[in-house]
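Hi support team,

I'm filing this because I wasn't sure whether my run with magnesium ion finished correctly. The job status page said complete, but I'd like someone to confirm that the output block is well-formed before I use it downstream. Pasting the exact inputs I used:
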Amino acid sequence: MLVSEAVGATLADLGADTVFGVVGSGNFHVTNALVARGARFIAARHECGAACMADGWARLAGRPGIVSVHQGPGLTNAVTGITEAAKSRTPMLVLAADVAAAAVRSNFRIDVASIAMAVGATPERLHSAETAVADVTRAYRTAERERRTVVLALPLDVQAAECARPVLPGRESGQIMASVVGATAIAGGAPPAEAVGALTAALASARRPVFIAGRGARIASARADLERLAAACGALLATSAAAKGLFRGSPWDLDVSGGFASPLAAELIRGADLVVGWGCALNMWTLRHGKLIGPDATVIQVDHEAAALGAHRPVDFGVLGDVAATARAAADALAEQVPGRPDGGRRAGQQGDGQPATGYRSAELGRRLASEVRWRDVPYVDDSDGSRIDPRTLTIALDDLLPAERLVAVDSGNFMGYPSMYLSVPDADGFCFTQAYQSIGLGLASAIGSAIARPDRLTVAALGDGGALMSISELETVVRLGLPMIILIYDDEAYGAEVHHFGPDGHPLDVVRFPPTDIAAIGRGFGCAGLTVRQPGDLDPVRGWLGGPRDQPLVIDAKVTSERGSWWLEEAFRGH
Ligand SMILES: Cc1ncc(C[n+]2csc(CCOP(=O)(O)OP(=O)(O)O)c2C)c(N)n1
Ligand SMILES: [Mg+2]
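And here is everything the job wrote out:
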């Protein structure tokens, strides 16, 4: 058997059933080996698209995304998407064809390992025919177990060599494999009693606690455990943008903390006397450069990785442990505390003065949250003028039109607060936020990967005109796959983020402005349905599209008003 076939067969055995890529001679055989073993191959039109599709897919499928690229330019084209995945700790394996070690004069020669390392990915390599199966198994397991983006170099001479048919260790025995897989979860257990005690004491004495859950809480499926603990101490619930939707439906949900937060959410987080980050980096975006933390607030961080604790800001203390297990242990400890105990423990839900208390959860606040915490309930002056629609008006109208079972994937730019905060999502799997590298142009492809992972949901790719035109070739992929997607473009005919960054200081803006582009016509050219929206009534055909077979993707070119930067962008500039 050739090594290229053995690599495909091994990956298929490990569970790789969906592969994204652009095929050239160097990755042709390995890709076909995967297909021969039953994997679905999704051809992207650009390698960056392939990487972003695999990234979006992995975030929703919860398994390593697989990317297959040609040697040299195939990999360099994919680098921006690989960087986003690496910074997001997306489990992903890039099968990167490479020239033979001896081909020192090859046009395609690049230093694959250096490229991987330079962007925070983990370099791996097929070292020889003899070690190929072990090499690819190690690379896949690193991606899976350590949540790393791994770039596996596949030298052409090694791929073309003969090797023995692969036998995965433990493959014959489901039991062995199950225990190996289970070990990953067991490793992240509850922290020592001392740490749980300190956390519990802080929760028991807090009057206005707020939890901010991040990607780590989402990955740990910690919603129920965090809600139980929050109920026991009267905490309000917020998330980072990456975990948006985690607490959807809770009456104590503040939605996203940080620049995206609504005025009421920001007020309440700022008013907290205790903030606990759960699997959350507590970075400048989530805390508005620290301005969401009150001067006297205690900050605690719970994470299963030691390196995450205190990485972005000082914390009063960090707790090293699995997020869900820690929340369970703290809730159990709180439940055990009864009034009058010699150790001074107080029952959760009671303040030190003996008054019954609900932490932050008063009936009055409950009423305010129900009517004020969503951005769409915040009054605003509608900028629409008949030829351009206010992005808030546009997004609220779509929020009303679209089915609740939706998945929103957002590109980067000034516009991005509108779909992120005015389109509600049913849960954390309803949101794909590829902003770890702050690159524009990744949203369409990550939406495609998300849509493939969650065909039960209506996927909305929310893009700026700049990011859309940067990645427009993947519209062909959407059409070819027949994905029932809406591609919603906030079209201000500009790199709006730059316009609003530099405009107020009087700088010339011609370099970041563009003439009008008929993106709906471009969409139709690719085979999508295309709609231009200048006022709310122009959205009427969306109703018909939703009621139809949805077999033709819908491109909405919304010509949006752009007099001012969005609220979160103004806030971000102030922060700098
Ligand atoms: C790949 C890349 N190039 C350039 C930038 C700098 N940049 C940040 S936002 C932005 C404008 C994006 O324009 P658009 O997609 O139309 O969204 P808008 O800001 O207009 O809402 C640019 C160029 C970037 N973040 N990433
Ligand atoms: Mg724009």
